[in-house]
Amino acid sequence: MRRSLGRGVAALDRAALSLRRWSWLIRSSTKAAMGTSFSSAAEGASVLSGGEEASAEFVKRHDAFIFDCDGVLWHGARGIEGAREAILSLRASGRKVLFVTNNSTKAREDYVQTFRERLDLEVRQEDVIAASWAAAAYLKQCSDPRASKPKIMLIGMSGLTKELSFAGYEVLGGPAFNGKTVEDLERELDFEHLDEDVGTVVTGLDKDLNYYKVAMAAAYVQKGCLFVASNTDATLPMKPNGTFGPGAGLSSAAVLNTAGRDAVDAVAGKPSALLGATVCETFGLDPSRYVARRGHGASWSMFRCRAGVLATMC
Question: What's a single GO MF annotation on this record (predicted)?
């Protein structure tokens, strides 16, 4: 028993050391890439800037960690030094490690290969919380009767198409509408004869967004369908030097403006509290306490779990 306890303490110490080193490297790489400081919040200060004892205590009193991907695990296609070691150390200490991303262009199964390529790390798709999955998971748990209808009108890419299909929905739109034209719209859009089996409109990042997609999705929203956005990020980082392009919010904003709506019914991804509720429901966590702390380039969120506290670094 004593030997087992000793191994457990050693694993905690290694996890704490790896997490401290990785946190320092994230701060350094973020400063270099974005020209901003990476300051920790009060709840995360013990890991980001505290001593070894405080770091070990921080790891000890948390049962699971959820990490963002872009800017935390990797910049572009390049893994951040120390990320792999920290994750492996946390796993070895018995902590559950999950990963969250607002990227709705990929399904969870796609991220398995991404982790191999960028971090040489094996992950299960069940451990990835992608915005595409979050949208599908929310709809399956949603009590709104519109979410139980079998078809979804989608503005989005293959990630959303896959996850919604995995959840049992028939997806209309998405990549299938990439080549649609205004002439097609004039022939095919009839407000009086929209598909009655469509209960929800879902929007996400769509790099092939076109007039047809926006008009068709807006027609279903005007008809009264549930409107769910995978996320409403206004911009998308294109390069580490600060170059940005339009984010998933472009799709939802276009549909809202066309349909004459002020807001979507639900946002499935970050930073919506709905994501925390969906994760807690799916993984059996108890969200009886939620505290968010934000710094420049980082935020810390806490969920109280059945066995302790879940720390989230995004």
Answer: phosphatase activity
Q: Which CATH superfamily is domain 132-267 in?
A: HAD superfamily/HAD-like (3.40.50.1000)
Cα–Cα distance, 232 to 299 (Å, whole number): 18
70 phi and psi, to 5 degrees? -65, 125
What amino acid positions are annotated as catalytic residues?
Answer: 63
Q: Which residue, 282, 257, 284, is CA-closest to 268? A: 282
pLDDT in tens, 254-311: 999 999 999 999 999 988 888 888 887 787 765 543 322 333 333 434 444 434 445 5
Q: Domain extents for the chain?
A: 2-102+272-313, 132-267
Burial of 181 (0-12, 13-18, 19+ CB in 10 A): exposed
Query: Which amino acid makes up residue 233?
Result: D
- In terms of DSSP bridges, do strands 298-305 and 290-295 run parallel, antiparallel, or are they unpaired? antiparallel
The model's pTM: 0.79
Alpha carbon distance 212, 291 (integer Å): 42
